Amino acid sequence: MLEVRGLDVRYGRTHAVRSVDLDLAEGEIVTVLGANGAGKTSLLRALQGAVRAADGSIRFAGEDLTHASPADRVRRGMMLVPEGRQIFVSMTVHENLMMGAYLRSDGDWMRDLKEVYDRFPNLAERRDMKASVLSGGEQQMLAIGRALVSRPRLIMLDEPSLGLSPLFVNNLFELIRELNRGGISILLVEQNTAMALETASRGYVLELGRVVLADTAEALAGDPALAAAYLGGHAAAPAAIQTL
């Protein structure tokens, strides 16, 4: 479904993403791991078209979208749930969800909106309230619900568990698995490495904008170097990823 080759992202002299290759098959959950500053958010922003790729290519469902606008990518089924949710706090819950239907040209978006309310009853109860009154977990559900109203084929999640309680994190990851079982492919950037590897089938590890490890989630979870870098293990990490 998603094929990324040699992707570069630059901000002036800063080389945020360096020649990244990444694949995601239809129906897969793939996670991208890395320390702060590794280039994970820049990667997702480039895939969504929010920043321009300096080099490389992005193909989605067989189409070259390297130079497509963010709106075109949304129309084709790519949707980013950004870090920090980025909901419109001065708008109501309902108005925020309606933003997900902005580019819909079919007549079925009301059904998708109803399904979001059915899935998230807390949002239904607060539909006419300003989004600012929602808890952090409810705001994350609103951001995901807004994405679902666009009827995506691929959802890209940027640090979805950030700032959430442990109980809500468990509910969030169950939701991710449920969405995937419903046919949505998932590209997951996540600080909770253990949960991410439990949920995904494969993973990539970024360091300073480069992919330094790529393997099945099971293999990455059992990698002593990754355990040392992320999971509190005591094995010495090889030089290639000591700074993760």
TrEMBL record:
| Molecular functions per Gene Ontology | ATP binding; ATP hydrolysis activity; branched-chain amino acid transmembrane transporter activity
Q: Where is the ABC transporter domain?
A: 2-233
Extract the Pfam families matched here.
Answer: ABC_tran
The organism's superkingdom is given as: Bacteria
Task: State the coiled-coil residue ranges.
Answer: none
Q: Kindly give the CDD domains that the UniProt entry links to this protein.
A: ABC_TM1139_LivF_branched
Going by the UniProt record, its keywords in alphabetical order are: Amino-acid transport, ATP-binding, Nucleotide-binding, Transport
Q: Name one GO biological process term.
A: L-amino acid transport
Q: Which family does it belong to?
A: Belongs to the ABC transporter superfamily.
Question: What's the protein here called?
Answer: ABC transporter ATP-binding protein
Which taxonomic lineage is given here?
A: Bacteria, Pseudomonadati, Pseudomonadota, Alphaproteobacteria, Hyphomicrobiales
